[in-house]
Automatic annotation (TrEMBL):
Keywords: Hydrolase, Membrane, Transmembrane, Transmembrane helix. The keyword Hydrolase applies. GO terms for molecular function: hydrolase activity, acting on carbon-nitrogen (but not peptide) bonds. The keyword Ubl conjugation does not apply. This is Imidazolonepropionase-like amidohydrolase. It comes from the Bacteria. InterPro entries: Amidohydro-rel, Metal-dep_hydrolase_composite, Metal_Hydrolase, Metallo-dep_Hydrolase. The chain crosses the membrane at residues 12-30.
């Protein structure tokens, strides 16, 4: 062996050892394999469960039949011929919950830039299709499914007039499989119209003027029969003018909501307010203009120091009383697992429990324009179903036992459950009787 070969041995040896250690570490810390479920193979009937239809109706000791991903029948009795019977006695059956505004799948670790693909450069970017950035392999997704959240509206960020948003189902191999309703709307991020410095106020007014000018030009482009030059930005918002798309306006303050209402009246847009902390102050105008609200989470501080401390808890009930269509949202991505409990808090502050359930199922589906497909347990709709051993809106009793997306029984495992099982095993405990606080 020559000297050069001898010198290479330590380098080669340590490289092999180092790679081996990495592989071993990844193997130890990796999440168990969770594969998307295959298509439904045979008719299934859930029997003897309490069925919460999602439209306010409850069927004690009810039955629900579904086949090929669609609900066939719901009631006290249904046709059970040639079906697999699943006894859900003592359990609650719900429509799959819907996260109405989240950056799930666009962010994985907030502190790591390489895992954030949530925004784009530029102020006017409606031609960006954010669905292609959605990461169906996100390790956060299984934590949502475990709490009954089966669908999500994926909302990108960036600019004043942001990219398109889409609805996904949360059991998929890739973004193409996940896409449930693509490019349903455009995001508008209004500047914060809160009293501040004269410079900040001037900058906000300039941004508002930029928004108005864009929509005026886009309107002219829409009404032109022939275009000498194609404009991708104007093309992307055509659906706003024929009302096939929704303008999601991110606004909290009363002034901002009034500005959004003015835009809705001027351009006749289908509009949804996202956030809407002050929406209760202009509830009559929202109802009059048929503008819905995706509410910021009830587990929030009041927007201003002068607001009552429990106002975020009561806002949903105030909108319900005023007849404004609304649903309840949650911030961020990993936080979405708390969505059912946000609705539970709204139920403790003025909503009935079925109204609170509607606020994360049927009302969310209506606002997102997918209520013909999902949101309630009715014949003809997709079999997006959750079965819980307790009240799904109550974090103390909720325990999701099974869930179906388009009739496919999905895997409810996640990393947290894996860690629980690890230490239950270590200390010789019983998984079924161990209580977690």
């Amino acid at each position: 062996m020559n000297t050069r070969q001898f010198q290479l041995i330590p380098t080669y040896f340590f490289t092999v050892v180092f790679v081996g250690l990495i592989i071993q570490t990844l193997g130890v810390s990796a999440q168990p394999h969770i594969y998307p479920a295959p298509p439904q193979q045979r008719k299934i009937v859930l029997i003897h469960g309490t069925i919460h239809v999602g439209n306010g109706k409850v069927i004690p000791n009810g039955m629900i039949a579904f086949d090929r991903g669609k609900i066939l029948a719901v009631g006290e009795t249904v046709d059970t011929s040639e079906a697999e019977l699943v006894d859900v006695s003592g359990m609650q059956v719900y429509p799959g919950l819907i996260a109405p505004a989240t950056n799930l799948g666009l962010v994985e670790v907030e502190a790591v830039r390489a895992t954030r693909d949530v925004d784009e450069v530029g102020q006017i970017i409606p031609s960006v299709h954010s669905i292609v950035a959605y990461n169906a392999d996100s390790k956060v997704i299984p934590t949502l499914r475990s709490n009954g959240i089966l669908l999500a509206h994926i909302v990108p960020e960036g600019g004043l007039i942001g990219p398109t948003s889409s609805v996904v189902q949360l059991d998929a191999w890739n973004w193409e499989d996940a896409a449930y309703s693509k490019d349903i709307g455009i995001q508008l991020y209004l500047p914060r119209l809160y009293p501040s410095t004269p410079e900040a106020e001037s900058r906000a007014l300039q941004q508002v003027n930029t928004i108005r000018q864009f929509f005026q030009q886009a309107s002219a482009y829409y009404h032109e029969p022939v275009h000498t030059r194609r404009n991708l930005g104007f093309e992307a918002v055509k659906g706003l003018f024929d009302r096939s798309k929704i303008l999601f306006v991110h606004a909290d303050l009363e002034k901002e909501i009034w500005l959004a209402l003015d835009l809705a009246r001027t351009f006749h847009f289908r509009m949804v307010i996202v956030g809407g902390a002050d929406s209760w102050r202009v509830a009559d105008e929202l109802k009059k203009n048929e503008v819905a609200v995706i509410l910021r989470p009830p587990h929030s501080l009041p927007l201003t120091p002068d607001d009552p401390v429990d106002l975020p808890y009561r806002t949903a009930a105030l909108l319900q009383q005023a007849g404004v269509k609304f649903c309840i949202g949650e911030d961020g991505f990993w936080q979405q697992r708390n969505l059912p409990f946000e609705a539970g808090t709204a139920a403790a502050y003025g909503l009935t429990r079925e109204q609170a359930l509607e606020a994360v199922t049927l009302r969310a589906a209506e606002i997102l324009g997918i209520d013909s497909l999902t949101g309630s347990l009715e014949p003809g709709k997709d079999a997006n179903i959750v079965v819980s051993r307790g009240d799904i809106l109550d974090m103390r009793t909720s325990k999701v036992e099974m869930a179906f997306i388009q009739g496919r029984k999905i895997n409810l495992d996640n990393k947290q459950k894996d860690l629980l099982g690890r230490y239950v095993y270590k200390y010789g405990l019983d998984m079924d009787t161990t209580q977690i606080y």
